[in-house]
Design a protein that fits this description.
With 321 residues, the protein is of the alpha/beta class. Helices cover 39% and strands 13% of the residues. Bound molecules: adenosine-5'-triphosphate and magnesium ion (MG). Adenosine-5'-triphosphate is lined by residues 7, 9-15, 37, 39, 41, 161, 210-211, 233, 235-236, 239-240, 243. InterPro entries: CobQ/CobB/MinD/ParA_Nub-bd_dom (IPR002586), P-loop_NTPase (IPR027417), ParA/MinD_ATPase (IPR050625).
Length: 321
Amino acid sequence: MRVAFVGKGGSGKTTLSALFARHIAGQGGPVVAIDADINQHLGMVLGVEETGLPRPMGSHLAEIKEYLRGDNPRITSAAAMVKTTPPGRGSRLLGLVPGDDPIHSRFAATAPEGVRLMVTGPFAEDDLGVACYHSKVGAVELYLNHLVDGHGEYVVVDMTAGADSFASGLFTRFDMTFLVAEPTRQGVGVYRQYRDYAADYGVPIAVVGNKVHGPGDVDFLREHVGDDLLVCLEHSPAVRALEQGRPFTLGDLEPANAEALAVLGKHLDSQEKDWERFGRQAAEFHLRNAQAWANKATGEDLAAQIDPGFTFGPTRVSLQR
Ligand SMILES: Nc1ncnc2c1ncn2[C@@H]1O[C@H](COP(=O)(O)OP(=O)(O)OP(=O)(O)O)[C@@H](O)[C@H]1O
Ligand SMILES: [Mg+2]
């Protein structure tokens, strides 16, 4: 099950991604947490030392593409593979259990509670301009497109702030999207926009209130987002202490916040996997990218990369390596 945390800058996407991933790991579930934000901060909140950070996926796109394309005859080279190129027969697919393929073994670091951390990589000086950032995040899109996951297995993605998350097809690659919102006018300001985007694509979304100080805050959120409000996390002294560099374990979290994480987990678990939508939208966004820039960039008609004989999801045939 894949979940994205989106929302305004500073709302708590990174904090909640990390706490949620740690909660899932504590329950024993295999969990990969991916830092797909411009400011790479997730490792820190997961308790990974600077020196223990994994190799950035965004800097090794060619290697990742070379592996994933396997011997799929529709993909002529790694260079002809773009972020939206979907898997087909012959492609190499990824699993979370045991997850010992070269992508996980080369690009994931294990955080203290067993969360596996993957990162797109930080912005370098010469990355100025969004195009490069989007291509780095493209590593996550490729990863998710080739991942065959099921219930009880988790990928948590810390997304970039604002409506940027909706700029590519990446937002359609999740079973659930948690919109983190503070109980302020600004905090709920992007809600309608997110909700409308999500509704257009049949993407399930729920609002998670954060840094809530009391019933008045909850009422405010409820008033603005209605039944889309799933649960709220309170302003947390334990999180503040973590940010101050003090030792932190999940056990330090306030009981109400720990319960809220459990609600998020239950909600994610209650989602049905919709492989049909997933495959349909993979093709849709690939065609859109092909026409907009990728055909020109690669000099090929990338529509031919879509394999009509390939079925997304856990079929025996598609899982063969
Ligand atoms: N429930 C909470 N209680 C206390 N502090 C919190 C809580 N949630 C987040 N914070 C604090 O708020 C600040 C912003 O949180 P965070 O970095 O997770 O937001 P973000 O949405 O990822 O921001 P950005 O858009 O910059 O990536 C951090 O200092 C974090 O420690
Ligand atoms: Mg962040």
